[in-house]
């Protein structure tokens, strides 16, 4: 079963990658552009993963089987 620790571990990895992008970006007149682009891309990927992970960890709607007959469901819809 998935745990919430993955979120914290992922955040630590993202912070490390962002720090690496900050310090290892090529020097020159486009350094700010490199830093901004890399950090924005890294954070965007993390947010997409986080939203997908949380949607599966705590779904808003519980899945329901539709191939059962009404008398086996135990409740009426």
UniProtKB/TrEMBL annotation:
Coiled coil: none annotated. GO terms for biological process: vacuolar acidification. Keywords: Hydrogen ion transport, Ion transport, Membrane, Transmembrane, Transmembrane helix, Transport. One of its GO terms (molecular function) is proton-transporting ATPase activity, rotational mechanism. It is a multi-pass membrane protein. GO terms for cellular component: endomembrane system; vacuolar proton-transporting V-type ATPase, V0 domain. InterPro entries: ATPase_V0-cplx_e1/e2_su (IPR008389). Its main location: membrane. The chain crosses the membrane at residues 7-25, 37-55. Pfam families: ATP_synt_H. It is found in: Endomembrane system. Belongs to the V-ATPase e1/e2 subunit family. PANTHER family: V-TYPE PROTON ATPASE SUBUNIT, VACUOLAR ATP SYNTHASE SUBUNIT H. This is V-type H+-transporting ATPase subunit H.
């Amino acid at each position: 079963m998935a745990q919430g620790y993955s979120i914290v571990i992922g955040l630590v990895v993202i912070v490390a990658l962002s720090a690496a992008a900050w310090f290892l970006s090529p020097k020159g007149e486009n350094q700010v552009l490199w830093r901004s682009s890399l950090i924005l891309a890294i954070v965007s990927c993390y947010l997409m993963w986080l939203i997908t992970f949380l949607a599966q960890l705590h779904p808003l709607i519980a899945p329901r089987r539709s191939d059962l007959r009404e008398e086996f469901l135990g409740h009426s819809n």
